[in-house]
Amino acid sequence: MIQRPRGTRDFGPAEMAKRRKVELAMREACSRFGFGEVVTPTFEHSELFTLRSGQSIVDEMYVFKDKGDREMALRPEITASVIRFYVNEMSTHPKPLKLYYVGNCFRYENPQSGRYREFFQIGAELIGSKNPETDAEVIALAVNCIRSAGLENFVVRVGHIGVLKSLVREQIEDEKAAADVLRMIDKEDWDALGDMFDARVLPRKLFDRITAIADIKGGIEELNNLEDSEATRHLRELFDVLRLYGIEDCQVDLGIVRGLDYYTGMVFEIDAPKLGAEKQVLGGGSYALSELFGGEPVFSTGFAIGIDRVALAIDAERKIEPKPALDAYVIPTKDDMRKYAFGMVARLRSQGLRADVDLMRRTMSKNLKYASSLGARFAVIVGKEEMAKRSVTLRDMTSGKQEVVLADNIASEICKRMG
Ligand code: HAM
Q1: Which residue range forms the structural domain that includes residue 20?
Q2: What pTM did the predictor assign?
Q3: CA 60 to CA 109: how far, in whole Å?
Q4: Are residues 254 and 342 in the same domain?
């Protein structure tokens, strides 16, 4: 038997019904906020991601040469593709441009629960500004997506990359060393950071300052522990707008550095604490990528949500109840009723109901068993006697209650009972 590759998954119909429910709720939130859907290729020239996404993403990329000897990569994320698309074809569109996407991404990571080599994101990018209000709009959308999906316990942390990035870059000239320091802060690996400071004889005062800033976590008043700057003013204004949007429970976290390298301003993450190690369900922030891809400079803010993790987190809170897969399953009582049954199922389908019919020539009891294994709400039993009266028997598969109804009214009779 050939097995699927490590870190990938197959999803059966029941699992997909749950996942689509979560995805659809988040898509609808994007539409409510005026975001339009875009689709970009699953693979891109690898350069698109190596230019700015950062070393940790590059190390995890699936890269291959195509038959024309061009280096390609399966997308590890979708932001870079959206901005490439914007630079190629949409740069003259009126701003702000609000785009969202849903798609699979690939990262060669060590697989574990909540961490896969192929995973699914829904994300949004607002292109055109880096005002506190555009950042707030994006955070409000993110929170709305997560809430609409049905997740109840989550923590929104908002920071500003400018504070730590400018401090580190000002004080550590060597670009690679500065990037290493930021990566260690992102991973909260204070031991490794301490060792690096010792090995490079970097000032201890800088280490203490970094850890003190990374420790600023809590309510907006935590910003009083920092001197006034563009970053603190930005965050204060942003929190004011969030409050007007009715979003009161965001925390400040100046320790957020993010694994991707392209962020320039506000950064934010959402965690679902129930998930344990892989609890981050969302990451995002403001960035400037268009110039790097050959376009005019423009600021954007966006996020991506790990659909797999949101579905896992909702499952950890309570089971996601997908709708039953079928409204009606049509059962002919005898062979000579088959043609009548096909006409009946066609009628149900044409009236918008999800309907199926016996295709295996089973007995009545086996058909009822099969219908219940499919999760059908009703069985529509077509027999000779009923046919003579232009009727069918409608069986509620949950209660077992049976009623004879007119065949012509079958769809409306089912809809009436489904409420
Ligand atoms: P990211 O933080 O790398 O950001 O990924 C976003 C989300 O994707 C994570 O919070 C997590 O839920 C999910 N995720 C990442 N890797 C895996 C994995 N191996 N298995 C399962 N889920 C995973 C981005 O991708 C940025 N493009 C976000 C963004 C958009 N920033 C601005 N615009």
Answers
A1: 13-317
A2: 0.91
A3: 6
A4: no
